């Protein structure tokens, strides 16, 4: 019984440490993104379209972990800034794609190196080996959490 209490306490501590670490890293990166004149969600959409090409609006939310109701608002803002355009699918008129414009492409090409450098600086407390360990452990944690949730449903 005592071991179970210790394991429970350790799990809670891990959750708190993980949450605080995520918040600290996220705050630094988001501050950098805001300096580019966009918010983190807008940046994520632009980055997705730049690296993966045109995307159906319905799928963007799940790819960048955003509620589907918020996508229209974000797409409207990016479109008003001239960074993306909407275009109808030729095969299925019910589907609308978001496409990055030349201006959007130039924007990402200009700011992405600075963004990547900021992330590198933010996680620089870890060595290359520690980053590899953290990646492996966090993947394991994520898969385990997903599996535990699926079994509990």
Automatic annotation (TrEMBL):
Keywords: DNA-binding, Transcription, Transcription regulation
Record flagged with keyword Transcription regulation: yes
SUPFAM superfamilies, per the entry: Winged helix' DNA-binding domain
Domain of life: Bacteria
Highest classification ranks of the organism: Bacteria, Bacillati, Bacillota, Bacilli, Bacillales
Domain HTH marR-type: 11-143
Pfam families: MarR
Organism in which the protein naturally occurs: Geobacillus jurassicus
SMART domains tied to this protein: HTH_MARR
Signal peptide stretch: none
InterPro entries membership: HTH_MarR-typ, MarR/SlyA-like, Tscrpt_reg_MarR-type_CS, WH-like_DNA-bd_sf, WH_DNA-bd_sf
Name assigned to this protein: MarR family winged helix-turn-helix transcriptional regulator
């Amino acid at each position: 019984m005592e071991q179970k209490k210790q394991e429970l306490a350790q799990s809670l501590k891990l959750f708190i440490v993980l949450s605080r670490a995520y918040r600290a890293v996220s705050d630094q990166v988001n501050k950098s993104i805001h300096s580019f004149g966009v918010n983190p969600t807008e940046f994520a959409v632009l980055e997705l379209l730049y690296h993966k090409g045109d995307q159906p609006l319905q799928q963007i939310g799940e790819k960048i972990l955003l509620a589907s109701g918020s996508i229209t608002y974000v797409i409207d803002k990016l479109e008003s800034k001239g960074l993306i355009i909407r275009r109808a699918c030729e095969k299925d008129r019910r589907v609308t794609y978001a496409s990055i414009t030349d201006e959007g492409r130039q924007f990402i090409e200009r700011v992405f190196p600075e963004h990547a450098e900021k992330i590198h600086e933010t996680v620089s407390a870890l060595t290359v080996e520690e980053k590899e360990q953290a990646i492996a452990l966090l993947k394991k944690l994520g898969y385990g959490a997903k599996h535990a949730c699926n079994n509990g449903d």
